[in-house]
Design goal:
The protein has a single domain, classed as Peptidase S8/S53 domain (Rossmann fold, 3-Layer(aba) Sandwich). Helix content is 23%, strand content 19%. The protein has helices spanning 19-29, 31-35, 43-48, 65-74, 96-99, 121-125, 128-134, 204-212, 245-257, 277-289; strands at 6-11, 55-59, 86-89, 142-147, 187-188, 230-235, 242-244, 262-265, 267-271, 293-297, 306-310, 317-323, 331-336, 354-358. The chain has a 7-stranded parallel β-sheet, sandwiched between helices. α9 runs parallel beside α10 (277-289). The radius of gyration is 21 Å and the shape is globular. It starts with 5 loop residues before the first strand and ends in a 7-residue tail after the last strand.
């Protein structure tokens, strides 16, 4: 067995020192919003969450890393030791009704598609025309999209990009002292740069952004749910839609401290309970205590968010949870088909709040 040696030890949460300093910094930066009642801090919870002791340790090789983590945990020198699991994008199904471009192409659609439904049946299903009579969204609401970046040049999205009001672009200075240089549009935790363009093979982050907001009532082909909100790109997935838990955690912290009102994570992975729940849940609780609404897709396995899977090595059944959707402070979003039933591919249930949204596919129940 190859001997493991430590390559690097680094803090996951940049610029965090202690709860008191963190609360004071946030309160000063967003004093106007707090005074006007647009933001509210749960200071008691934040005092109990100390992110300063969470580090990522990288070894020279990954062989038998599970045994190494057990030895570290047994050494008594660490409060908790967790593996840095890979999470993946919850991919867009390749079924014809997701690829169908024009309503007239009924003959090319999947047999399960109901041809009597309009192309944008989803917006009508959730009564968006009535909702738009009340509000079309607010430019004050910032949604951080933790994904593979966003095509911020897209005609329907370019007018909705968040800009860091405290950062001067391209001057090679961390103007707002948040630990990230020139993060005028967001941050890339895959390459540790300010490049947040969606350059992946999937275009997943751009697709997700389009489910949130886009130019509407402009005679282009599609209408969007929200007409005015702002998008904060936080890149935590690579070119093929994969990212580590530590990168997602850092993205949650970044989005929270840069003013996100909502954090959306259309990603996830199945892990054994306890392996990563402590640190990951702390980052979610940290955002929640800042008044952030944390949203995650339920996933596309057609299973409950806590499920028993057969191990491919020992053929024993073990319990796994889908994170981050499983966590109690996360609003989990499943999918329904055009007839209003849970989609066959959609995960379901879990702790806390579970809602559904139009997603397509035939029904499971």
């Amino acid at each position: 067995m190859n001997e493991q040696t430590i390559q690097t030890i680094e803090k996951i949460f940049k610029n965090y020192s202690n709860p008191e300093t963190d609360i004071a910094r946030f309160s000063q930066r967003f004093s106007t919003e707090i005074n006007e009642g647009e933001r509210e801090l749960d200071k008691a919870t934040l005092q109990s969450i100390n992110l300063s002791k969470i580090y990522k340790i990288t070894f020279n090789n990954q062989s038998n890393i599970g045994e190494v983590s057990k030895k570290l945990a047994a050494s008594g020198q660490f409060e908790n030791v967790e593996l840095n699991y890979i999470l993946t994008a919850d991919f867009i199904p390749s079924d014809p009704y997701f690829l169908d471009t024009y309503p007239s192409q009924v003959n090319n659609r999947d047999p399960d598609w109901l041809p009597t439904h309009d192309y944008q049946w989803n917006l009508k299903m959730i009564n968006m025309p009535q909702a738009w009579d009340i509000t079309k969204g607010s430019k004050k609401v910032i949604t951080a999209v933790l994904d593979g970046g966003i095509d911020y040049n897209h005609r329907d999205l370019k007018d909705h990009m968040w800009q860091n009001r405290d950062e001067i672009p391209n001057n090679a200075i961390d103007d707002d002292a948040n630990g990230f240089i020139d993060d005028a549009l967001g941050w890339n935790f895959i390459d540790n740069t300010n490049s947040v363009l969606d350059d992946g093979e999937l275009g997943h982050g751009t697709f997700v952004a389009g489910q949130i907001v886009g130019n509407t009532n402009d005679s282009n082909k599609a209408a969007f749910m929200n007409w005015n909100a702002k998008l904060m790109p936080v890149k935590v997935l690579d070119l093929v839609g994969r990212g580590k838990v530590s990168q997602v955690m850092a993205g949650v912290y970044y989005a929270t401290n840069n003013g996100a009102d909502v954090i959306n994570m259309s990603l996830g992975g199945w892990i054994p309970p306890g392996d990563v729940t402590s640190s990951f849940q702390k980052s979610i609780s940290y955002a929640f205590a800042h008044g952030v609404v944390v949203v995650a897709s339920a996933g596309n396995n057609g299973l409950p968010l806590e499920a028993s899977w057969q191990d491919s090595y020992s053929y024993n059944y073990s319990n796994y949870i889908e994170v981050p959707a499983y966590f109690p402070n996360v609003l989990k979003v499943g999918s329904v088909s055009p007839n209003g039933d849970i989609s066959r591919f959609s995960n379901f249930a879990g702790q806390g709040y579970f809602v559904t949204a139009p997603g397509g596919g035939n029904s499971c129940f």
